[in-house]
Specification:
alpha/beta, 4-stranded mixed β-sheet, 19 helices, 17 strands, 12% strand, elongated
Length: 691
């Protein structure tokens, strides 16, 4: 009812939301605001409070709803801000922009493609130099042509025409070759940079850490695809433009000096003042707007993708109107930034127009007195104007390309931040871990995960003095203990059920074993990853055939042949034999998320496990959507193929499938039991079917 009677004030509140791609829900009357501003909601009193990121003031909007479900949506995630709303410099923000640009550019020219890259650069520079040199020759041809017309010298006129024809014959192939090599250089660089970023993104779990780290990076997909493409194009274009203008300046400065030395002085002063003024007035603002444009457009695209990923939940809840208002709010953010950018570009256009039109008059005003005195010919006046124009173009490269330079500035920062987060994130993560564990009994050291256990030995997992903590709070930089000083071994043939009340760290412990959770201290020793397998509660279903689904997680058995008979056997053990009737093993690619239920998805994860047959398996509530009888069948089959495993679960019936139970308690406490000695603690007040 509350959603149906949503009024204009509520819609305005939703449209004013500034959202990034990570959201957190607010339960009950608890308050939560991000350190950089957020939407603070108090359902118990029906008041929606929005904290401004500019001046810290609160804007109150009253809601007609009594007990709706709300979401806190952070406003920004780029950098830190002080209480006054000003951005606090970070380590990366203090690094000079030129140094950031070098760190993004140099990897390609020192990579395995460096020889081809350098060759393409040399070729395009030669072609650019040749094309620019023709402009010098063209200025002399134009001088002779104008003088011949002024003096009515017909033979000289036709001779100048012949020169122009020769220039055209040379210029056309030079221009075509220059364009082709330039585009090939840009394409190969873009391909290499995008592939390099993708390789880093999928290495060392960077894709995971960028999302769940203490300071998540916004829209890495946009940075890898769009920013990389725009960056390479702008760098090549602006660099070649600067190179051509440099040659043009060197060529024409001598011509201009022989004609009118005073013009060189006027040009230098005019260009210096114009460039400084444009950068001072527009440079920083346009760069900030370019960065914000990429951020807001990325958020809008991600908001629509999230709707596509959660269509069923949204449809069940009937919350399409709420999602519409949220994405409309994101669209409003984009429109606001683009409108502001249009205003500033319009101001820059006015400034550039005045600046450009004045350059038309300057050479003529300076040289005309000498022409009227008969000291120079009309063609010399034309040549002086051409030389002045070419040198002025070079000197005004910043003024004329300030918009592109500002966008390049934003792209450099975004790509540099991405490279730093993926390439050197472990160092920053280690620093944050020490901060997170200051004052802890573990002494502030980070978690060490070593894959050094022998798969032929008797110890499959060793946890030593492990302490897990929450990440430090954004507001007070404090963390809390999840697990305190845990030590235990998982031996060959043993199986452990991790039990405990919600929030005691069951899934977090599995993340730590997988190397995904690093807040805390202690040591975890495991087998090599290819001998282990983790089954999440919500399995990931790849877009592909049924056979690709089964082989998706196959690791240690990749060298052995896998037949259709093996696939049928895995499906039969998982009670999924009926899937072959829906799609053949090597048929068309299917979006399996739209076909399988949650329970079937979990059984498919077991089928993958039966295909891979790891030495150790870790199951995170992997049967939560499966009935008791099918759960028993799956665990019986699991015990026949993989005798060493760790489960997280709530059902009391799971105890009989495990040799031990690890009971997690509040405030970091824990106890290890043999299954026969374990009884459900009455203090936890579990239901009959659950711990």
């Amino acid at each position: 009812r509350a959603m149906n009677v949503m009024g204009e004030e509520e819609r305005a509140a939703l449209l004013s939301v500034r959202r990034r791609h990570t959201t957190g829900s607010v339960a009950g009357s608890a308050r939560r605001t991000d350190s950089v501003g957020g939407l603070e909601l108090q359902p118990s009193v029906g008041v929606t409070r929005r904290t401004s990121t500019r001046n810290g003031k609160d804007f109150l909007r009253h809601s007609r709803s009594r007990n709706p479900s709300y979401t806190t949506i952070p406003v920004e995630e780029v950098g830190d801000r002080t209480g006054e709303g000003r951005r606090r410099p970070t380590a990366n923000s203090t690094k000079p922009l030129a140094l950031k640009a070098l760190e993004v550019i140099l990897p390609y020219y020192t990579s395995e493609e460096r020889r081809l890259a350098v060759a393409l650069v040399c070729i395009v520079l030669v072609l650019a130099a040749g094309h620019t040199s023709l402009s010098v020759v063209t200025s002399y041809a134009e001088r002779d042509l104008t003088t011949a017309l002024a003096t009515k010298d017909q033979p000289e006129f036709f001779q100048a025409i012949v020169k122009f024809v020769g220039i055209i014959i040379l210029a056309v192939p030079l221009q075509a070759g220059y364009y082709y090599v330039r585009e090939i250089l840009t394409l190969r660089w873009r391909t290499w940079l995008t592939s390099h970023l993708m390789d880093m993104y999928f290495s060392n779990d960077s894709y995971y850490r960028l999302k769940v780290g203490q300071r998540p990076l916004d829209n890495p997909d946009q940075r890898i695809c769009e920013d990389a493409a725009a960056f390479t194009t702008r760098v090549v274009d602006l660099s070649l433009t600067l190179f051509k203008y440099t040659i043009s300046t060197v060529s024409f400065i001598g011509i201009l000096w022989t004609i009118a030395p005073e013009l060189v002085i006027v040009l230098s002063a005019y260009a210096s003042i114009g460039t400084y003024t444009s950068v001072k007035l527009f440079g920083r603002k346009l760069a900030a707007l370019a960065y914000d444009t990429s951020l807001k457009e990325g958020n809008l695209r991600y908001g629509l993708v999230r709707v596509q990923e959660h269509t069923e939940s949204i449809a069940f809840l009937g919350s399409a109107s709420i999602e519409l208002n949220i994405v409309l709010g994101m669209l409003a953010d984009v429109v606001k930034v683009l409108s502001n950018r249009i205003k500033w570009n319009c101001k820059l256009e006015v400034y550039s127009s005045i600046y450009s039109y004045l350059t038309i008059l300057l050479p003529t005003l300076v040289v005309s007195p000498r022409y009227f005195r008969g000291e120079i010919e009309l063609g010399v006046v034309t040549q002086a104007a051409i030389a002045f124009s070419r040198i002025m173009d070079a000197a005004s490269i910043v003024v004329d390309n300030l918009g592109s330079v500002s966008s390049l500035n934003a792209e450099i920062v975004r790509l540099h931040d991405l490279l730093q987060a993926m390439g050197k994130g472990h160092r920053a993560q280690s620093d944050s871990l020490q901060t997170a564990t200051q004052g802890a009994d573990s002494g502030g050291s980070s978690i060490q995960v070593k894959e050094d256990l022998d798969e032929k030995g008797h110890i499959m997992l060793r946890v030593t003095d492990l302490s897990l903590r929450t990440p430090p709070s954004n507001l007070r930089n404090k963390s809390h203990a999840i697990i305190d000083r845990m030590t235990w071994d998982l031996r060959l043939g043993h199986s452990v059920l991790i039990a405990g009340a919600p929030g005691t760290g069951k899934s977090t412990l599995l993340r730590a074993i997988a190397g995904l959770w690093t807040y805390g201290g202690g040591e975890i020793r495991t087998l090599r990853k290819r001998h282990m397998m983790f089954l999440p509660q919500r399995p990931y279903l790849v877009l592909g055939t049924l056979m690709q689904q089964l082989l998706y997680a196959r690791g240690c058995n990749e060298g052995t042949p896998f037949t259709v008979k093996d696939a049928r056997d895995a499906l039969e053990k998982s009670n999924l034999s009926h899937l072959e009737a829906k799609a053949s093993f090597d048929g068309e690619e299917i979006n399996w998320e739209n076909i399988l239920s949650v329970g079937e998805s979990q059984k498919l994860a077991f089928a993958r496990l039966f295909v891979k047959r790891p030495k150790v398996a870790f199951l995170d509530e992997s049967t939560s959507a499966i009935g008791a009888q099918e759960e028993e069948d799956l665990y019986r089959n699991l015990q026949s193929l993989c005798k060493t495993y760790v489960s997280v679960g709530h059902r009391m019936t799971l105890v009989k499938y495990h040799t031990h139970v690890l009971q997690l308690e509040a405030r970091g406490g824990w106890k290890m039991y043999e299954s026969k000695d374990f009884t459900c603690p009455s203090t936890l007040q579990y239901s009959v079917d659950h711990f």
